[in-house]
Amino acid sequence: MIDPRVASGLRDLLPAVMIPRERILQTFRETFASFGFVPIETPHIERMEVLTGKGAGSDEVLRQIFEVTNKGGTPGELALRFDLTVPLARFIAKHMDEVGVPFKRYAIGSVFRGERPAKGRFREFMQCDFDTIGVDSRLADAETAQIIHGALAAADVPAFTITLNNRKILDGALETFGLTGRSSLVLRSLDKLAKIGRDGVAAELQRPADAGGAGLDAGQVERILEFAETGRGTAAVLDEAEKRLGANAQAAQGIADLRTVLHLLEAGGVPQEHLAIDLGLARGLDYYTGIVFETTVNGWEKFGSIASGGRYDDLASLYTTRRLPGVGASIGLDRLLALLEEAGTLKSATSTAPVLFANFPGTDPAVAVRMAATLRQAGIGCEIYPEPIQVGKQMGYGTKHGHKLAVIIGPDEVAAEIFNLRYLETRHEDKGLAWSVLEDSVRGALEILEQGGLQS
Amino acid sequence: MIDPRVASGLRDLLPAVMIPRERILQTFRETFASFGFVPIETPHIERMEVLTGKGAGSDEVLRQIFEVTNKGGTPGELALRFDLTVPLARFIAKHMDEVGVPFKRYAIGSVFRGERPAKGRFREFMQCDFDTIGVDSRLADAETAQIIHGALAAADVPAFTITLNNRKILDGALETFGLTGRSSLVLRSLDKLAKIGRDGVAAELQRPADAGGAGLDAGQVERILEFAETGRGTAAVLDEAEKRLGANAQAAQGIADLRTVLHLLEAGGVPQEHLAIDLGLARGLDYYTGIVFETTVNGWEKFGSIASGGRYDDLASLYTTRRLPGVGASIGLDRLLALLEEAGTLKSATSTAPVLFANFPGTDPAVAVRMAATLRQAGIGCEIYPEPIQVGKQMGYGTKHGHKLAVIIGPDEVAAEIFNLRYLETRHEDKGLAWSVLEDSVRGALEILEQGGLQS
User: Fold this and answer.
1) Which residues in chain B are closer than 8 Å to A384, comparing Cβ atoms?
2) pLDDT tens per residue across span B16-69
3) What domain range is A397 assigned to?
4) Which of A162, A171, A234, A333 is disulfide-compatible with A126, CB 3.0–4.6 A?
5) Same-domain check for residues B27 and B142
6) DSSP state of A328
7) Packing angle between helix B235-245 and helix B167-176, nearest 10 degrees?
8) CB distance A4–B382 less than 8 Å?
9) Interface pTM, i.e. ipTM
């Protein structure tokens, strides 16, 4: 016997998780499409060179890469993708003439990272990315946040906050405080504010450069931290930033851009309470150059961001000389699902069809097959129990799997052309309904259940 | 610069293919769910031992396996899955107590085989599998064919034929002709009838066993070929088979089982003309023990089967001592798409949203953002051109991408609270419509286009 376990850090997804996961994915696809984004797919396997090109991924990510070889292949030539951004950059460099710009694409797929296995961390997880490429546009910036909002709201994610900032404001602040050369290190430290706290960040910023710190003095640290903590909010925070940094051209541009984005988000119907400006939000990656986003579920901030992104100046510089600015975001589906599960708001289900037809011993299953086909035509999913075992056991199967109703037809019912309709949870049964009212009866019963149901 | 090509045998999927592909996948998911099948997902990476266990895959498939390693991992330990059946067997052995039987699951995902690259053959392709596990049931057999029919019909696949046979009939025939010990070889040869013709199969069957043939004499070959070619059809072919083999218990059981399946398929509304019995259909794999299926698109038989499967006695014997019979099928999505593309029946599209809002120079895009949000609420997808470039160029973008309508609002229209509605294909434009009739106008125009449209 071979042990049927999965490899370390990987996992099977069972129906109770997969059913809501598929539902959420479908709302994401529909939301992306409703904004005119088009799907693309790239292979799970990329050439190693594409993945490890300078700057394609952080050193940490590159250490976690899975190499792929087949018989007769050259070792070290192929690997599994670790995100959907590098493949997008390669894709656009290769297919630019076919797809043209502006190019609005979405991509949903598994990515692989050989991280040390830990609770809630998996070596394969799903990303849902969307980007608008080839334009430097505030409308596209705003639309990115609008889509995060639309997708999460459609997926019934509870109260969440999309936090915005603009790297131009941060760059202006660093310029104003005389810290221009050290921006990468400072921004990376600032990102840890929520995680390691004010004192932790202050210590990191003061640590000498040769010890991996930013080497700031106490005054500089105080100024940058005080600025980063201007407060979360929307318009008022920008007014405050303008007071402090308005004289700096970069910061002024960043502030104006965020005001335009807030104006467009209001027009797009994104409620104010879902938005926050956080002047300390940096999104460490060096390649962001304009707006940046993070999204947290209120009260579940410890899960980190479930939808993040930002604007970049040059997506595909490793693969083409053409400069391609863009803006986009990635929704971490598996992290979101883990959060919803822990928060108890995941509408779990183990059945995809609301109606179970009994397979009554001694009756021709063709009767059930014919009736089920009629209901499916009317858009009502139906399962027929596959074997004519004891009907009580079949009802137990339906109850366990979350079917709502059972249709039961024994030999007497066949002779009289009637059926019994059983509410599986309460065990209430409507007996002797005519075959001719099947669709109406089932639809009516499902509506009753939908509206809070029958008491047992 | 790094060359942005994909590795040999792999490919990118562009929007023109991905849009219909996503649409077809969604109809498959809905069809599976409407029969009560539930989704599961297993990792792309499995332990090598699971994939290469005796009988898990054919020697050919095992030679094509992609090995996976990460830094610190043991070489030879992990590999990419080459189908969804082996992972299903492992899954059910591992999670049997949680999911219980009968277990009706579907799984959709990429599989990987290091085949020699050739036109239309890819090293990564998508399979759509569904199986009913844990029961030996004619209803489940029939349902498998009913779902193939339902899924392909819902995906607008042109006239296709689901060919059925039952291994018990073939086993009975071999028994009757005194060829029991040589069934594997004979069945594998019979499968090639369509490909290499009668003479080719006859030669193979007569070739001595030590030269890889079945070692039959001319009389045996004639009898088996004549039987395999009894003719394609439905009930009549079974009557003929009964005349010849009725005395054999196995064959009689297989014939009775197929008759039950045909009876249930009729009840399920599967039209006769989509079904055929072919007594020569074997589906080489040793593990099939009952009904077998293949599906071809009429006139495009050279593409091979696009949906195949059958009944097996024991799914997971490598991983558990529990005997798990089942029946299932796999739809080869990528082969189907290649066929539809070549047949010219693939409804290609490069846009997911029917309406394009112009981004008129000198007007606040918030107007378009607000209107687009209203239309999306009403279920009408809308894209707003991201930059205020020359409107003619924006219309060119819409025409190229297959948007149907454009909404154009310049400064004069903003002042008067009106808009112009342009039919992108014919360039007809309805001018001066009031903002209050936006939804009705757009819906009306889309209906006009749906019904054959406006003449240019």
Assistant:
1) 36, 139, 143
2) 999 999 999 999 999 999 999 999 999 999 999 999 987 667 778 888 999 999
3) 355-450
4) A333
5) yes
6) E
7) 30
8) no
9) 0.93
